[in-house]
Design goal:
The complex is a heterodimer of chains A (107) and B (119). Chain A has 107 residues and is an all-beta fold. Chain A has strands at 4-7, 10-13, 19-25, 33-38, 45-49, 53-54, 62-67, 70-75, 85-90, 97-98, 102-106. Classes of the chains: A mainly beta (107), B mainly beta (119). Chains A and B meet through β4, β5 and β10 of A and β5 and β10 of B.
């Protein structure tokens, strides 16, 4: 199974800050990584697919990058509605695995 | 409105069974493969099971293989998860989601249903 690891587990930031979350996989997966946002009691939301492609309707302040074994999700100018938990997920092979999540909190 | 709504969660004793349902609306359910996931307290998202559009390809995570069974009824726009031999570590919020073959990602999700396994 491909191990998927995220860092940091949590972070505190101000509205307007730039935030970067890192995801690493135990083997090369080219660009087979997706990013999701989850708020308590809500449906998870797909933000980025295939490492760097913005899902329809997602604000352009979200961006993804990386390839191989290291990937990033960046939020430029953090907005109040962005405080949530973010997960990366590898789609290279089953079992599809997620990182443990990064909780973004208000500072 | 495109929507997935899970139901069937609740409190069950260890060793017991529960059947979750996922009702789809607002899109052509039979066009998509479907999946179950869970989010345990203090944990991260875990993929559990996949079923393709015509139910002839099914996958399970090792943690639930042999205990859980995924199925679907395209005529009823519904997905199911039969959960047997439940354990305390199965306590979680359970979600269903579509998988987009084009995006290679899970792109429509439900809000989840809570399952608590406790005596």
């Amino acid at each position: 199974d491909i191990q998927t690891t995220q860092s940091p587990p949590s972070l505190s930031a101000f509205v307007g800050d730039r935030v970067t979350i890192t995801c690493r996989t135990s083997q090369s997966i080219t660009t087979y990584v997706n990013w999701y946002q989850h708020k308590p009691g809500k449906a998870p939301k797909l933000l980025i697919y295939a490492a760097s492609n913005l899902q329809t309707g997602v604000p352009s302040r979200f961006s993804g990058g990386g390839s191989g074994t290291e990937f990033t999700l960046t939020i430029t100018s953090l907005q109040p509605e962005d405080f949530a938990t973010y997960y990366c997920q590898q789609s290279f092979s089953t079992p599809w695995t997620f990182g443990q999540g990064t909780k973004v909190e208000i500072k | 409105e495109v929507q997935l709504v899970e139901s069937g969660g609740g409190l069950v004793q260890p060793g017991g069974s529960l059947r979750l349902s996922c009702a789809a609306s607002g899109f052509t359910f039979s066009d998509y493969s479907m999946n179950w996931f869970r989010l345990a307290p203090g944990g991260g998202l875990e993929w559990l099971s996949y079923i393709n559009s015509i139910s002839d390809i099914i996958y399970y995570a090792a943690s639930v293989r042999g205990r859980f069974t995924i199925s679907r009824d395209n005529a009823k726009n519904s997905l199911y998860l039969q959960m047997n031999s439940l354990r305390g570590e199965d306590t979680a919020v359970y979600f269903c989601a579509t998988r987009s073959q084009q995006l290679d990602a899970f792109h429509i999700w439900g809000q989840g249903t809570m399952v608590t396994v406790s005596s």
